[in-house]
Recover the amino acids of this structure.
């Protein structure tokens, strides 16, 4: 049995009994961990001492976990709440985006596969969501970072069909199967037309540039493109997708 201590964000929680819960935690150095927190809902002094602040969806904290080879669930033995991200309760849009982020991480990551880049992206997004004016910018950066960290960074500079450098155009075609742009027109459901403005926004994100001048419609199109690309990779629609990225 191995014991680990790590920073974590709760991306899913389920009641297991009146006093315990099953949680999915995104940890900084140990990836996504599914665990059983026995007694985490008790109100006794000993339980409060072990699970300070409680484990709730989208809370951040320091966690102590015991893992055993072959076990479906780890044992969550301690939790120290660091941030309950109260601002998510004051903005419906921020809350929905945060829940979508939790769903995306849960679906994209394999259990116990370390992805510190994705963890850092979630931390940054949750902080950004405190500013209503920055929500869409934060969502775009978050989706880009998660796709890139998981090995699915969209190709924006070279034609994914021919390999040639893309020339400036008013519109491109995005091929989700090949994972990037092509200048060739495509027909059917497996290719999507993309405006040059949208590509410009994604290139700015890829280069770490500013998005302050981006208009709301452009951000919405860029966010939806990355969301639909993730949906294609996962071959399923996340429960929060339609509320966050309506088409």
């Amino acid at each position: 049995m191995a014991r680990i201590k790590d920073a974590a964000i709760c991306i899913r929680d389920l009641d297991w009994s009146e006093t315990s819960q099953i949680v999915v935690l995104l940890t900084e150095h140990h990836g996504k961990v599914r665990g059983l927190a026995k007694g985490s809902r008790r109100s006794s002094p000993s339980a409060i001492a072990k699970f300070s602040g409680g484990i709730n969806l989208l809370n951040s904290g320091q966690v102590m976990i015991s893992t055993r080879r072959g076990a479906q669930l780890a044992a969550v033995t301690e939790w120290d709440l660091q941030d309950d991200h109260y601002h998510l309760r004051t903005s419906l849009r921020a809350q929905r985006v945060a829940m979508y982020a939790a769903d995306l991480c849960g679906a994209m990551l394999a259990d116990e596969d370390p992805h510190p880049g994705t963890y850092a992206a979630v931390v940054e997004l949750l902080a950004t969501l405190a500013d209503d004016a920055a929500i869409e910018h934060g969502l775009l950066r978050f989706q880009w970072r998660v796709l890139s960290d998981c090995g699915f960074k969209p190709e924006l500079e070279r034609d994914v069909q021919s390999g040639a450098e893309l020339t400036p155009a008013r519109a491109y075609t995005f091929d989700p199967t090949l994972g990037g742009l092509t200048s060739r027109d495509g027909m059917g459901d497996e290719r999507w037309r993309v405006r040059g403005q949208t590509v410009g926004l994604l290139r700015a994100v890829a280069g770490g540039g500013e998005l302050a001048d981006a208009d709301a419609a452009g951000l919405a199109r860029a966010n939806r493109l990355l969301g639909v690309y993730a949906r294609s990779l996962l071959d399923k629609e996340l429960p929060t997708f339609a509320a966050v990225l309506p088409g």
